[in-house]
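All the exercises in this workshop are built on plain-text protein records. The record below serves as our worked example for the rest of this section.
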Amino acid sequence: MEKQRIAILGGGESGVGAAMLAQKQGFDVFLSDFGKIPTQYKEKLQELNIAFEENTHSQAEILKAVEVIKSPGIPDTAGIIKEIKAKQIPVVSEIEFAKRYTNAKTICITGSNGKTTTTMLTYHILKNAGLNVGLAGNIGHSFAAQVATSDFDWYVLEISSFMLDDMYDFRADIAVLLNITPDHLDRYDYKLGNYAASKMRIAQNQTADDVFIYCADDEETLKVLKDTKLKSKLYPFSIRKKIEQGAYLESNNIHININLNDPFTMSITELALQGKHNIYNSMASGIVAKVLDIRNTSIRESMGDFKNIEHRLEHVAKISGVDYINDSKATNVNSTWYALESVSTDVILIMGGVDKGNDYDMLKDMVRQKVRAIVCLGKDNKRIHEAFEDDVEVIVNTFSAHEAVQIAYHLAKKGNTVLLSPACASFDLFKNYEDRGNQFKAAVKEL
């Protein structure tokens, strides 16, 4: 019998992982990338004898497929996707495909902000408690590659809205929705409602045995929940009001009441992650841990010794009494708001890059209160100047990380913080946000 073809679009982490799993499941696999495939992934495909092409899409080869797995970065408006859909060939995400071939349970975390930190913290708590757990999704090794090569009982998955758009039968055992704020609106016809509906797909297919965890303080989440019928058990978290079953903040203590006979309490001063937004992230992870009956002492220990990821409010150095913080992962306005909220000193803010239709209004109050100067780092900084010219005395343009750090160094006074938190994508001057963060760190180390 002839093997059925699976075509995979995109030769990055998720694409190559999907190719590995599809090959293991006995499909005829063809991987196509319209750009260049990074060397390490090309070598993996060659080693496994998986057919691939780069810098082109051979339509005839792709359209032989019974199913197409696409990288989350490829929009539905791409010509090749339109051709595939016209032929009524199903298009799914790597996550959707991988879930078919594992019995592991999944904890799926989404939200406009905080999802990487919450995913990492949840994984840290579960691993420390001795669970056989994998980490995948938008972070680490691809879910499909791990399903092909490992045997975990649990996965903690960071899930973006782009992944959710191509998920149909996938079911999350535990779903976490942290918040909904305007991001990637260019992919959603510039409608927040469309983006919110996409985020709610995290809870689709859930049954009464499953759990949905959400922020009771987030207006957009509450709005979209009104129009969604969920079968799962709901556990909200809040820092504004007392929650009967879920998590809340009272006199600087987090309280988690899932198992009412064994409540969890922890002072926010003991949390490894500081700042208001991280109280939310810690609550969400804590609810997951309590749902899984992890011991309070173990949760407390993990929440107290967690180390955050690179490029997310990462302390780089203190030079002449000035702190340098790398928050290059802040690619939207809301992330930058959170970064400013967590810094208690005056700030020299390095921001800019590729603007995804940003609305800077929500930053204005925070900028007025905390920012002494803005150093723009991007090819086109016009919108930043227009947004903040009345709020900040100094706005300077720079075109490299080195130049931005040099200027910030001269603008900063003892006791200030130089914060790279761009609110924009990085593709105008850098390969990606990691490259931007690494160049910033290198420039700080040269001071």
